[in-house]
Write a structure and sequence with these properties.
Layout (H helix, E strand, L loop, with lengths): L5 H13 L40 E2 L9 E7 L4 H12 L5 E4 L1 H6 L1 H9 L3 E4 L6 H4 L3 H19 L5 E2 L11 H9 L3 E2 L4 E2 L10 H10 L5 E7 L5 H16 L3 E3 L9 E2 L15 H7 L13 E5 L2 E5 L5 E3 L2 E5 H8 L2 E5 L4 E6 L2 E6 L4 E6 L4 E6 L3 E3 L2 E5 H7 L4 E6 L4 E5 L1
Parallel strand pairs: 2-3, 2-8, 2-9, 3-4, 5-6, 7-8, 11-23
Antiparallel strand pairs: 1-10, 11-12, 13-14, 14-21, 15-16, 16-17, 17-18, 18-19, 20-21, 22-23
Helix pairs in contact: 2-9, 8-9
Length: 420
């Protein structure tokens, strides 16, 4: 075996340092003057389980924006009753964690989700029910569970998680299309560097979890996988010593975000999922492509009608040709209207005060009925469907329902549409 001399080694180290990648955050701007309507009349325009441990070779090394030694503690499968104990331990140590939660668990423990959020921790999406056979049979099922969980979390915290962790990790489960479409939809997928193996079998003792952490290779940036799901009492027991171990080695504790380039396992699809059906381009255009707008940080739109106001966050509305387009159910239910789905007619039926509006998802025909005089009027309105939601021009929608727009304004912090 030939010896490597010191000068050669120094050259290699310098070369490696120069290869560090630096990532600057993306910024999005929106013209504050868009969305004005000078004509208050109704105007119609055309519509534009157990974790799978990947072998070391399957890890893709991530590049980070910081040079500090940072460890990211992550917790999967919660929230449960154990999550409160995890939060208390993190609080005592004055550090923050990242929680990849299940939608079904968030429904059971909304108060814990609120505590996670209000304590300054980060919440990520871990699908709704963690069922491998459904999630990895085809991408549309995975996507559906992500969106289902996303809405549950938005209703609890007011925000949408941009981070995703695949149940069991991506190794053996994701193909290139999963990665590509989730990125296209505005999400960041995170695997891990260090697996505590707390989900390798039932009741793994705390001493073994601690040993697994200490045997893992130390490096500048480390993502640690743990679980706060039911039955992981030993993880809670091990957590203080795991924290102490990284503190003793000079690590700071951080939370994951889209600005942190993630560790992702290389693609290797298990034969079990080899026959999965890929989504069509039409499905991708309707669901994935418009989804990224949900995470663009434009100014919110405040809508006021009938004495009730609601805020539509960036991505929950769209400015198109100087008009606001909104998801019908989302905006109207927040304003106090009742929206029901008529499956036979493939239409949304809106009831608000003395008016009933029928909006068909597959046509531009909208029917209005007024209880006062039993009148019936048909309008031609540009309607589109995205992520199973009907989108419609806001002004047209409000005016058909008896709330004409009296003011539209754009300020530095928000847009406003005020109707009677």
């Amino acid at each position: 075996m030939k010896r490597f001399y010191v000068p050669a080694l120094l050259v290699l180290l310098i070369f490696g340092a120069l290869r560090l990648e630096f990532h600057s955050p993306l910024t999005t701007t929106v013209d504050a003057h868009e969305g004005f309507h000078t004509n208050s009349s109704l105007s119609i325009i055309p519509s534009g389980q157990k974790s799978v441990k990947a072998p070391a070779a399957a890890l893709t090394t991530a590049s980070y924006t910081a040079n500090k030694k940072t460890v990211y503690l992550t917790f999967d499968d919660g929230p449960t009753k154990l999550t409160d104990q995890v939060l208390s331990i993190l609080s005592r140590n004055k550090i923050k964690g990242t929680f990849f939660v299940l939608g079904e668990q968030a429904e059971r423990y909304p108060e814990v989700i609120r505590r996670i959020s209000e304590s300054g921790h980060v919440i990520g999406n871990h699908t709704y029910d963690h069922e491998y056979k459904k999630l990895y049979h085809n991408f549309s099922e995975f996507w559906g569970q992500i969106k289902q969980t996303e809405e549950i979390l938005r209703n609890i915290t007011g925000t949408r998680p941009e981070l995703i962790r695949a149940p069991g990790g991506t190794f053996g489960h994701f193909d290139h299309n999963y990665f590509k479409l989730l990125e296209q939809g505005g999400y960041t997928v995170f695997d891990w560097d260090v697996d505590t193996r707390d989900s390798s079998r039932k009741g793994v003792p705390a001493s073994e979890l601690i040993r697994n952490v200490k045997q893992a290779k130390l490096k500048d940036q480390i993502v640690v996988l743990m679980h706060d799901g039911a039955g992981h009492d030993q993880t809670v027991k091990a957590l203080p010593e795991i924290i102490a171990y990284y503190k003793a080695h000079g690590y700071e504790f951080g939370t994951l975000s889209p600005k942190v380039k993630p560790v992702q396992f290389s693609v290797h699809v298990s034969a079990v999922y080899g026959g999965r059906v890929q989504p069509t381009q039409k499905w991708i255009a309707a669901h994935v492509v418009p989804n990224a707008a949900l995470f663009k940080h434009a100014a919110p739109l405040i809508v006021e009608a009938g004495g009730v106001a609601t805020e539509m966050k960036s991505g929950e509305y769209e400015l198109s040709s100087g008009r606001y387009l909104v998801p019908l159910r989302a905006v109207l239910e927040r304003l106090g209207a009742t929206v029901k789905w008529n499956n036979a007619e493939h239409a949304a039926v809106v009831s608000w005060g003395t008016r009933t509006l029928t909006v068909r998802a597959d046509s531009n025909i909208v029917e209005l009925r007024k209880k006062a005089d039993s009148s019936f009027t048909t309008y031609q309105i540009p309607v589109s469907t995205r992520n199973d939601a009907i989108w419609i021009p806001l002004r047209s929608l409000l005016e058909m329902l008896g709330h004409p727009v009296v003011q539209a304004a754009a300020g530095p912090d928000n847009y406003k549409v005020i109707a009677s």
